[in-house]
Amino acid sequence: MTEHVVRLVWDAWRTRKSGVGAIAQRQRARLADMVAHARASSPYYRELYGDLPDRVENPRQLPVTDKKMLMERFDEWCTDRAVTLKAAEALVDDPNRIGEWFLGKYTVMTTSGTTGRRGIFVVDDRTMAVVTAMMLRWIGDWLSAGDVLKVTARRGRMAMVMATGGHFASAVAAARLKKRRGKRVEVLSAHMPMAELVARLNRFQPALLAPYASMAAMLADEQEADRLDIHPVLLALSAEGLPQQEYARIARVFNAKVGNSYAASECMFMSAMCGEGWLHVNADWVAFEPVDADYRPVPPGEQSHTVLISNLANRVQPILRYDLGDSVLQRPDPCPCGNPLPAIRVHGRSADVLTFRMAGGEVRLPPLALSQAIESVRGVTLFQIAQSEPDGLELRLQIAPGANADTVWREAEAGLRKVLAEHGLEHVAIKRGGEAPEQGRGGKFREVIPLAPGGGSSIDEGKDSEEER
What residues contact 343, with CB distance under 8 A and at least 6 apart? Predict the structure, then answer.
């Protein structure tokens, strides 16, 4: 794969250097190729695209798809006839198989169900090569030659702070990286008590730190308080966004470069942040369409209702004109950083850290530490954890038809109480929510909702004033 990745990196560099026209040309050619492949090899797309022209270069010619639609036709959607939903679910539902190749050659990713249904996505080697190439392009943007030398001098030690249990995509990446690089990689759990996490990071002294964004903010607090004493060259954040001033604070506290990316299991190489705080979409490998509620194009400078994406790399499970559910704003003018790729900001993916009171101070928990406890409970199709008061949570569940509601509730509550207890928060009350999870802007559900100013929780609290990812 090394030669393939090198070739992809070279093509990506050359295409971006050639400007907007070359980027658009690459996108058109790759879209036409992907549509032709999907039509020829996927029974679902063969039926869906029956009336389309022979060659399609514009994504607007395609009908819109979404997670529910594709998951209902999973076996017909995939281009490899050996791929089945039953086999994929058997893999992702078994914690002992994390990191295992699916059918000996594919990677399986899952979504957490923020649109109402868990998605299972099968990824081929070509996609993983594009992910690697885009990561190298991002790192080239983020790090100077001097930074690279610093990382190399410290043997490239990397610490990853992530949901190592139920969040399958993160767990797969961590397991494989740890297997390849051994002692140079430390994988730490996002729901580990903060004191233990700080102690382990102090011992490991990473050159590269890859936490969830909310965890990075909390680690910056620990560094400012002199409990944490690490000196990473780069913090590569993921999964969530932060207010723009937080990126600057984290960079200052650690005296390090800070980068973030916006991606999804459906398209893991979507974008990366520049020094101006904008996310640049890899438009040579993904067709990205901000649209209104009726799927009509939204011009740059206006907030979209949702965004449609076409992943131009994944050939085993084509994702074409797919409703991702995120509200985005595309910059109307060239980004001052000089990158010609489209620049965006995203609503609806902000990091929602929950703060609880206890004797001697406060305990802050990142959203993924709580949501992981619910994701693994069978029978939950959608959930929401809302902080209803300073020492109280409301758990809202949508339960699958046929599941025993009382059993599901007990298991979900027990998982949540276990996480709270690990952080000394046994006193926090958990209320069984009488309402269904509330849908936010863009069609997604916020899994964790912090206490709003003045008390109470609000699904859209703070979204208009925050800087998006």
Answer: 274, 276, 278, 279, 280, 281, 330, 331, 335
Last residue of a domain, which of 324, 349, 374? 349
Kindly state whether residue 197 falls inside one of the protein's structural domains. Answer: yes
Residue 112: its pLDDT value, please? Answer: 58
Q: Are residues 319 and 383 in the same domain?
A: no
CB half-sphere exposure, 28, CA atoms < 13 A? 9
Residues 194 and 296 both lie in one domain = yes
Query: Could you read off the pLDDT of 328-358 as tens digits, one per residue?
Result: 999 999 999 999 999 998 875 556 678 888 7
- pLDDT, one tens digit per residue, over 91-131 is 888 877 777 789 989 988 887 555 456 789 999 999 989 99
Q: Let me know whether 234 and 260 are in one domain.
A: yes
- Indicate whether 210 belongs to any domain: yes
- Order of strands across the sheet that contains 327-330: 261-264, 267-273, 279-281, 343-347, 327-330
Give CA–CA dist 125/1, Å, rounded: 8
Task: Count the domains in the chain.
Answer: 2
Helix (H), strand (E), coil (C) string for 408-462: HHHHHHHHHHHHHHHCCCCCCEEEECCCCCCECHHHCECCEECECCCCCECCCCC
Range of the domain at 422: 354-449
Give 369-422 pLDDT, tens digit per residue: 777 778 778 888 888 888 888 889 999 988 888 889 889 999 999 988 988 888
Residues 173 and 255 in one domain: yes
Q: CA torsion 163→107→273→312, rounded to 10°?
A: -150
The 10s digit of each residue's pLDDT in 134-163 is: 988 888 888 888 999 999 998 889 998 876
Q: Which residues pair with 429 in a beta bridge?
A: 392
**Among residues 91, 268, 99, 124, which one has the least CA distance to residue 179?**
99
Q: How far apart are CA 424 and CA 193, in angstroms?
A: 9
CATH number at residue 280: 3.40.50.12780
Q: Give the CATH number, domain containing residue 376.
A: 3.30.300.30
